Amino acid sequence: MSSRSVRWGRKKRYAIASIVAIFGISVSAYYAMENGPYKNTKAWNFDSYKDNTVPEGFSYFQTDLQNDTWIVKSDPSAPSTPNVLAKLTNNDATSDYHIQIMPDGVDSVNYEASVQVKINSGEKSQAAGLAFRFTDTKQYFVLVADAANKTFSLCRAEPGKLLCLVDKQANVTPDQWHTITASVSAQGIGGYLDGNELIKRYDQHYQHGQLGLWTKKDTAAYFDDLEIKY
Question: Mind listing the pLDDT tens digit for each residue in 141-192?
Fold first, then answer.
């Protein structure tokens, strides 16, 4: 074997070893960031608001001018009684997606956010979720629990479309509370349903953005105990 071939083989091995090392460092950093630790917590349980009121300071976004309602309601089944934030809808709802952005949000790259959600009804859709890295209605991520299709999905909004990047079969049941958790770092996103990790994706789109609640089409849903650790 020529000395040139030996040198080329050695360089090739070094290059492969470097790539493996870089990937290993990235994975280690991802897991370290995904698992915390977090020093601060911010939470919304909606119990300080009066029943049947629209919370002051909340920012509602939708994809057309159909005016559905987000309102505080009393619900005896709420994980933390007495109140929930209810997404009400009418049978003529035409908006594809509805998003309620939380006031006084946290601008952080690395965090864990969770919310309790109960999907009540919907003829066109029965899907609700947790939106994060929200820049505007064209740029955000959302973890979606779909009771009609029995799926849990990670989707990314881009101008003109919503791409569902990962879909997992899941036992999403109407009229039952479920917990959605997003573990977010600079390297990627982990998605949990009821404490079970179903989604892991390396994705560096939209590093910053706000936190919010999300529903699809005519879905009516209740939300409670939204929390972010950062």
Answer: 999 999 999 999 999 999 989 999 999 999 999 999 999 999 999 889 999 9
13 and 114 share one domain: no
Q: Are 52 and 71 in contact (CB under 8 A)?
A: yes
Q: Any residues with CB less than 8 A from the CB of 56 and at least 6 apart, and which?
A: none
Nearest residue to 199 via CA among 208, 209, 207, 190? 190
Residue 53: DSSP 8-state: B
HSE-CB of 164 using CA atoms within 13 angstroms: 12
Spans in the chain with pLDDT lower than 70 = 1-36, 63-68, 90-94
Domain total in the chain: 2
Domain check: are 30 and 45 in the same one?
Answer: no
Q: Fill in the amino acid letter for 7.
A: R
- The strand pairing partners of 59, in sequence order, are 101
If asked whether residues 18 and 46 sit together in one domain, one would say no
